[in-house]
Amino acid sequence: MGSIEERCDMRTKEITGKTVLWIFLLAFAFVTLIPVVITILGSFKTNSELTTGATFLPSKWHFSNYAEAWDQANFSTYTVNSLIVSLSTVAGTLLVASMAAYVVDRMDFIGKKVYVGMQSFTMFVAVGAVVLRPQFDLMVKLHLHSSLWGVILILISAHASIFFILLSFMRGIPRELDEAARIDGSSLGRTFWTIILPLLGPGLGVGALFTFRGAWNEYLLPLVFTMTKPELQTLTVGLANLKYGISAASQTHYMMAGACLSILPILIAYVFANKSFMQMTAGSLKG
């Protein structure tokens, strides 16, 4: 009887634990998704409906809000600018971070611990608020202060988190592969490009996802660097311009429609990088 009671108690505790876990997950999902749902529904409302907040669902679905937001925010130009910044940042960040991770993991050199420590330190520096002025002064000297390339270079420089992600993946690649390649006469660079880099696929996918999301959502840097050239503004800056129309009246419904449109590239990036992200999660749980 004692063993049966113990098993019943264990079963009860297991059911209770799962119930609490599901309640927590459902509450977290609700808190996370409700703002997205409100934004999507608000994108189909009129501005007066949003101001009064009388109804949860639109009284009439105004699909024209998306066309108006597209035209007023100059979405085609701003989307191209955002893609240039985001894709260039992804390519540059993955290149720099993967090469740095390879050298740090595979080689010993003077100042290695100092370099890793500096990478860790930069993760605690708020890029923008603290270092925006010196960054801008630097780009002025490089004649990149009114160009998207200044934004791209600054975003690439903030690659510390991607460096540590790739470094953890790099440590999982056997060193015997490097030794075998060296015996076959392969140089350090050729070993990296032909052997190591393809094996970093999952890590590169996760790094690309995080980098693309950060670059796509960046607002302060593109705003500062494109003040004199509005045609170079990115989508996040263009969306802010939708807040007030020609008559200086609030246009929240257009902003919500534009926000929904701007989310689509991020969702597409998550779909393509989902496999790599799941592999990283599974690996961390296994470890």
UniProtKB/TrEMBL annotation:
Q: Which residues form the ABC transmembrane type-1 domain?
A: 79-273
One Pfam family it belongs to: BPD_transp_1
Q: Which UniProt keywords apply?
A: Cell membrane, Membrane, Transmembrane, Transmembrane helix, Transport
For this UniProt entry, which residues form the secretion signal?
A: none
**Membrane topology annotation:** Multi-pass membrane protein
Quote the PANTHER family the UniProt record gives. Answer: ABC TRANSPORTER PERMEASE PROTEIN MG189-RELATED, ABC TRANSPORTER PERMEASE PROTEIN MG189-RELATED-RELATED
The protein, known as: Sugar ABC transporter permease
Species of provenance: Paenibacillus riograndensis
